[in-house]
Design goal:
The chain is an all-alpha fold and about 120 residues long. The protein is built from 5 helices and no strands. It has one domain.
């Protein structure tokens, strides 16, 4: 995967691409949460693969603002919708407690990876 392909995929994972009628939305990280149809490991794995592909871009002196906003959205809305007890998935009893823990772990891993890349590590 090229950095440009990864960037485009991350924009889609975050919902920054407004084509929610596009079939790719159902395979996006935030797309799997809204509407909620269960967690899909492949969505998480794709985000992590994309991070490896854009790593060099996140370590640079000038950083792509739209890319960082997409990563922030994945983490923020992942927490807000699925991990937070007040989020729509828990509040409406749509997500199982074990899936909350799994989602929380995924969001933490994405967040930590992004932080380390921005710090110039990994």
């Amino acid at each position: 995967m090229t950095p440009q392909q990864a960037r485009e995929a991350l924009l889609f994972h975050s919902g920054a691409r407004p084509q929610s009628d596009d079939p790719r939305w159902g395979k996006a990280f935030l797309g799997m949460l809204r509407p909620y149809r269960g967690l899909r490991e492949e969505c998480f794995q794709d985000v992590m693969e994309c991070l490896r592909a854009v790593a060099i871009d996140l370590r640079g002196a000038a950083i792509d603002r739209e890319l960082v906003a997409s990563l922030w959205a994945i983490c923020h809305f992942g927490r807000a919708w699925g991990v937070s007890p007040d989020g729509e998935l828990q509040r409406n009893h749509l997500i199982k407690p074990e899936d909350v823990k799994k989602l929380e772990g995924w969001v933490e891993q994405i967040s930590e990876t992004v932080f380390l890349l921005l710090e110039g590590q990994t």
